[in-house]
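Colleagues,

For the teaching module next term, I've prepared a clean inverse folding example: a structure given as C-alpha cells, and then the sequence designed for it. I'd like students to try predicting residues themselves before seeing the answer, so please don't circulate the second half yet.
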C-alpha cells in the first residue's frame, strides 16, 4: 500500500486553501510542469484539470478529476495519464493540535501501473509521495505566509 504522511506546520485551513486552488496543482504534484482548469469548478466533484508532465525531452498530458471532496478534510482524485493508465489519489487532511497531518494514499487503477502493481511499484510511489508532501508543505507555508503578511 502506498500511504505516506507528513505533519505540515500550518492549519488545516491553510493546507486546504492550497489543495482547493487548482492553479497550484502543478506546484506541489511531482513531475507536473503545468496545470490548467478543464471542467467545472475545482475542487467540486466532477471538476477536472489538465496537466503536462515533462519526462526528459518528451511531454505527456493528462487529466485529474475530483471523485470525492469533503472540505476541508478529504480530496480524492483520479489522475488519468492516457496510455500510462489512471490512479486513485486520496488526500486526507487531519487536525493535529494546531497543525495539519496530511495523509496521501495512492493506488494504480489501470494501465501498466495497475497491471504490474506490486511492492516495487509501491516503493516508487512512496519516493514520489515523500517529494510531493515536501513540495505541498513548501507551497502551504509560502501561501499562508503571504496571507499573514497581507493581514
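(Answer key — instructors only)
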Amino acid at each position: 500500500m502506498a500511504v505516506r504522511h507528513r505533519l505540515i506546520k500550518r492549519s488545516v485551513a491553510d493546507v486546504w486553501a492550497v489543495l482547493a486552488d487548482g492553479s497550484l496543482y502543478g506546484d506541489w504534484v511531482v513531475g507536473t510542469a503545468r496545470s490548467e482548469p478543464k471542467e467545472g469548478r475545482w475542487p467540486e466533484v466532477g471538476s477536472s484539470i489538465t496537466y503536462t508532465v515533462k519526462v526528459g525531452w518528451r511531454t505527456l498530458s493528462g487529466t485529474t478529476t475530483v471523485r470525492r471532496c469533503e472540505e476541508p478534510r478529504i480530496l480524492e482524485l483520479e489522475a488519468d495519464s492516457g496510455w500510462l493508465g489512471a490512479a486513485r489519489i486520496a488526500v486526507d487532511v487531519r487536525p493535529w493540535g494546531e497543525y495539519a497531518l496530511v495523509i496521501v494514499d495512492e493506488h494504480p487503477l489501470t494501465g501498466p501501473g495497475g497491471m504490474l502493481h506490486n511492492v516495487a511499484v509501491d516503493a516508487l510511489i512512496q519516493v514520489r509521495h515523500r517529494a510531493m508532501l515536501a513540495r505541498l508543505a513548501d507551497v502551504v507555508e509560502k501561501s499562508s505566509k503571504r496571507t499573514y503578511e497581507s493581514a
